[in-house]
Fold each of these.
Amino acid sequence: MSEEIEQIEQVENNNEVEATPAKKSSSKQVDLGGLEFFYESNKKAITYGGGAIIAIIALFSFYKFYWLPEQEKEANNEVFFAQTYFEKDSFLVALNGGVSMQTADGPKTMMGFKDVADNYGATNTGVLANYYAGICLLRTGKFEEAIQYLEKYDGKDEMVAPVAIGAIGDANMELNKVDEAIKFYLKAAEQSTNSFTTPIFLKKAAFAYEQKGNYTDALATYERLKNEYAKSTEAREIDKYIARVKTLGNIQ
């Protein structure tokens, strides 16, 4: 009797072992069926979504590798004459254009920096045109408008970027907004720390502090200029400025 029981238990155990892989196979079939069902149910969305991604990539490639380079080339051609007038200090012509020029393709009316900035703002040349337009406006006494164009310049050039920021300080100084001027002078000094632009704007900031009667900060700024940029042009007579603010501020 005990032998028969053992045989029955053995058969049952064998059946359980054989049943296990059958269940796994069934599970796999259900998973694959689920994926197929999901695809069939969402076929249109997947197809359209893939097409949309391809279209976005195509548009981006067209913009970056064809349209933008062509715009950059056009902007470079347009800005050439404006830069020529700028170098001659003809700031109004450089700013507004309107002069008839003879080119290899025949006569044309030149664009000023304003037009280049407005029409080619997506290009590096268009961004730089904002800087030039701002300087032209500053030189012709249009200080509020100068600030507007200078603030549009967001280039990272080591020399141009601090000069653009410092020019906003100059425009504010002309508008008698001394606190704003100081803020931009100090920002320009830190924008790209070098022995050329930094001492220029430290000196301007110190002078602006003097105009406010803030001789303590003026002295600290002059002394920083002396200590950190002793070989700069701005530091040549720095002791004279230091002595002056000490006297005016009664500082020992």
Note: Confidence is low (pLDDT under 50) at residues 1-30.
Amino acid sequence: MNHFEFNFFPHKLNGIRILIGIMIELGYDYPLYRPPSEANSVIFQITFGCSFNKCSFCNMYRTKEYSERPWAEIKSEIDIVSKSYPQTEKVFLADGDALNLSTEKLIQVLDYVKEKFPNLKRISCYAMPKNLLQKRSDELTLLNEMGLNMLYVGIETGQDILLKKITKGATSNGIIDACNRAKKSGFIISCMIILGIGGKKYSIEHIKETAKVVSEVSPNFLATLTLILEDGVYDEFMQKFGEPFEFLDDSLILNELEILVGSITPSSSIVFRANHASNLYSIGGNLPEDRDKMIQLIRSLKEHPELLKPRVLRRF
């Protein structure tokens, strides 16, 4: 999958020799993913893979078995990178399940990262709803106070039937509770949803229920992706879906996007982006402030499909 782009480590280092040398010395376990907004972040793999790894649409960590890295390895890698890149301002903790670590171990990592990178402005990681629900509120608050600033949470859909069909391992109420607990603990939240994940049959239910969940959560950032099933999960997705699945064509994807933008009623402003590689066209703005402008653009794209990104350039 998917949610996010492949990442070579580290970024902004001057000289290909430094880049290659550090990559070899650290011995990263690929594939390695990060959110698009972490393109300029230093990445430390403190876990490998995903402890859940059952989402039928996601192929990110199917080649890996979940494991937690020993502190000695993590510490050594932080030491190596801090010597070559001491001015680091952003750090992303990989793989897909860093928040699954015990609070004590996470604090150990956060403390050392802050010690070795004095100019640090942000530490972030992916977070599944179950990660957030398994931590006590005081633990989440402590992690935020210790420097973990931003969490990326995949909502995918707010429709409970679909959440079961895609084996997300969460309910709409659970997603709302998890995100709101994180926000209350001080985290910046960036959420993702997937256009087209309900197919033609569930399209309207999917997008309307998703808009409700997003409105309840009112994340700081919201991004849309468009469903593209890779070979590694195509058969699994179809099997788990449990009934015939019809993909949406471009016009129906734009319909979902228009309904989504028009239906979200957040309690605070959301930075909205539909600029992932899987999307038909790069669209962005703030909700609700730029709602009308974005809807106008979406309607214009429906009338001029020649402006859409060629299919060959789209990827999940």
Note: The first helix runs from residue 16 to 26.
